[in-house]
């Protein structure tokens, strides 16, 4: 039952094959079994069981609230949840219990969803590994999959097996791992430069970043306000569309959301792609791209072409400036957004009380990790009067150019862009931490970041397993507010590639029965 | 002697009509009063009257002072600029604080329509150009009563620009010549107020009250077109009257709804402007002019003694009567301005540019707000002059005293007396009594009806004008009595009966035969 998709389990609930409480308990027990993955910071067991109970009552009365009623979900720990600790994986917010729900959380709860807990991340979502949070790194469940173990048996032999575990990517690594290990059916992530799509690709799940302004940010503890978007992680594209339907639309509490009403929708099943034009941005073919990912990318392009779609090479000429531009804009907004954490109203406060200034300084030194402090420092440097024109203004102009690149491509008749999501599959933690956070983030966000600058919708869809038996994702980028069209194309693609389900039986030995894995499709795509 | 109260320095400072002494020195000794040529009229360029430093010989070292103002007016609105919390003066500490006001992470600003309308209306009243597109920025500094670590303001593109504020000063020996001056308005911007820090020195603690945090402010920036404390105070008073007439701010300085910062420098005319200082938090009408004048005096003294003026922030110590440097804001502040990413550009429309089918709740039409502009103080004064033949300077006094215009109008309604008579009585007797006892108009023991009745008695010649003054004094003392009662109690009626009067005269003559005799002999 847990291996099913959201739509499937929703149908099972409606048909009474399983009750919300049973479903919730199964997920809770799986969360306990996979605790060592460190996907969750807080497991809201009591709340979840209570919500499940209420859902059950509704089902019994025949008053189900809809597709999400009774469905276990998880939420990244940078969304405010009323009465549930929200930490951003930072000492600064340890013990902080928000008095209100983020709009997206409230919307899910209003639909009857059952909140299993708050998922792990890089501190304040600053990172691409989910390794830099105060609660420790998230381990990629694929590290323990049959598929990966079989391929790497010879290497792992004789070594401490656990030292070879892989990162999930980030910063929404906890949410990606939670969905990948079947502890929930959908999870919220956040996406500022790729933080939803990157871990989705590494964990073999669907990671969707909606158009900026389509989904409310109210209650999402910000990284970069002008780029942040709540992300959706699910096990299939259809599920992402269901969740998007519940979340999208104007929020009076977020002035940057669209005014036009958004109706819930179901994705059509595309059968004919011959009218589609798929753009392949040539700048995304970088030397750092692994040959395996590159080959899967071109196979995907060929697949579209062979099915009659028009596939053309396009140019996004300002792509190479994206990283450095993002660095300036991101750190500047970070410097500003983090100014509120002064130990006065909420969060950590140091013991020093000689003066207000000394209290601020010590509170912030103790509360933030090096990554956060480093970004605050550079951001404030860029915002200084003497530097503002040379850095911030320039970066804003470059951002406009990057956004215009996309506009030009879409105006030339391209419907959807197809790119890799990441340079390669997930790497072992030991290898990942050889580079510092900044270098890693700069490298890992290379295919995902520009999308945030332009506010476009994008989705990472798992396509196949690498030679190592690890998931690889490809990214589709759509026109602004054409999220539905984008997901329709992604759904068609997902159906063609038949990505395999993680085989975690070994890992969860005794609970293998909870995985009624229906489809064990071919690992070999194309 | 005409209306001595009108001339007093203290009144002039509070009034929108400053009485400026052209020749004689007054005030604090140094010649820092404004000298006026009387011909500048409506000139909007920086007015730089010459100031002679106390120590130098006459006319040797002429100094000119340049004063610009930044005025913060709290917008009169039910809720704050970006949150739904109520706005209320003197509520229990931290009782009016929303999640946004306390800067809880994840909260976002939502612009209050009423505040935007207030800004547009104020901009229109001050002849500003209203920007149909304006932007919000973050201004960063760490302070305990600024929970977010930044203030949302409009630095790059404010809602209104290039306006003007006209105020009047009276000049000449008798100060009877009213001259209109103009201070250019650089801009009006919408911004958030901060909270309040309450320092408990005893326990070396600072307590924070966030009730005020996030209340909408209009920052009105006046170009350095003023040249002394009195001009500045007069301009501020005029702005205050305008805001009150518009209803966009209660502009009560005692409640902190109107706060003034002044940028001050001195220089020799014809030379570049001097280094300026900023005198912060001039929050009392009483001290505004004094603070500015004392800072001008200080700067002149510094320069005369070969010292330099530092570009610094100072505050006025009303006990010492001079400005002192502010310690906690020393050094250069870099506010690290940045666009506020959570607020889209603020777009305004006029009837011509209004998008068809636009939801009236979602758009603001400048033309509609212009239609709603009430009568402004200058128009009210004009009206008083036209309708009642009032002297212009008197119309200023009537408007400057809170409640006096209404009092005047109520008296006029109920009396047959000549308007000029009413004006004279109100300005000379009524206002004189109020001032003597330091009362506000609404605290007066004499009601408009009572004064109207008294003036009717006078008009009917039922009492003499000296008796009227006696009745007035009695009214002041014995609340509740009507003028007629007092007149009859004190037998102050003028005798209208000729026969009775004749009898009285005869009786007096009979009682004083000696006097009568002497008179006759003289003749």
UniProtKB/TrEMBL annotation, chain A:
Gene3D superfamilies: Amidase signature (AS) domain
Segments forming a coiled coil: none
Transmembrane segments: none
Keyword Endoplasmic reticulum set for record: no
Active site (catalytic residues): 76 (charge relay system), 171 (charge relay system), 195 (acyl-ester intermediate)
Enzyme nomenclature, EC number: 6.3.5.7
Location of the protein in the cell: Mitochondrion
SUPFAM superfamilies according to UniProt: Amidase signature (AS) enzymes (SSF75304)
Keyword Nucleotide-binding carried by entry: yes
Annotated InterPro entries: Amidase, Amidase_dom, AS_sf, GatA
Class of enzymatic activity (EC top level): ligase
Gene Ontology CC: glutamyl-tRNA(Gln) amidotransferase complex; mitochondrion
Assembly information from the UniProt record: Subunit of the heterotrimeric GatCAB amidotransferase (AdT) complex, composed of A (QRSL1), B (GATB) and C (GATC) subunits.
Role according to the record: Allows the formation of correctly charged Gln-tRNA(Gln) through the transamidation of misacylated Glu-tRNA(Gln) in the mitochondria. The reaction takes place in the presence of glutamine and ATP through an activated gamma-phospho-Glu-tRNA(Gln).
Family to which the UniProt record says this protein belongs: Belongs to the amidase family. GatA subfamily.
Entry protein name: Glutamyl-tRNA(Gln) amidotransferase subunit A, mitochondrial
Biological source species: Canis lupus familiaris (Dog)
Organism ancestry: Eukaryota, Metazoa, Chordata, Craniata, Vertebrata
From TrEMBL, chain B:
GO MF annotation terms: ATP binding; glutaminyl-tRNA synthase (glutamine-hydrolyzing) activity
One Gene Ontology cellular component annotation held by this UniProt entry: mitochondrion
GO biological process, one term: glutaminyl-tRNAGln biosynthesis via transamidation
Family named by the database record: Belongs to the GatB/GatE family. GatB subfamily.
InterPro entries from the UniProt entry: Asn/Gln-tRNA_amidoTrfase_suB/E (IPR017959), Asn/Gln-tRNA_Trfase_suB/E_cat (IPR006075), Asn/Gln_amidotransferase (IPR018027), Asn/Gln_tRNA_amidoTrase-B-like (IPR003789), GatB (IPR004413), Gln-tRNA_amidoTrfase_suB_CS (IPR017958), Gln_synth/guanido_kin_cat_dom (IPR014746)
Keywords in alphabetical order: ATP-binding, Ligase, Mitochondrion, Nucleotide-binding, Protein biosynthesis, Transit peptide
Organism field: Canis lupus familiaris (Dog)
Protein name as it appears in the record: Glutamyl-tRNA(Gln) amidotransferase subunit B, mitochondrial
Cell compartments where the protein resides: Mitochondrion
Gene name of this polypeptide: GATB
Function: Allows the formation of correctly charged Gln-tRNA(Gln) through the transamidation of misacylated Glu-tRNA(Gln) in the mitochondria. The reaction takes place in the presence of glutamine and ATP through an activated gamma-phospho-Glu-tRNA(Gln).
Quaternary context: Subunit of the heterotrimeric GatCAB amidotransferase (AdT) complex, composed of A (QRSL1), B (GATB) and C (GATC) subunits.
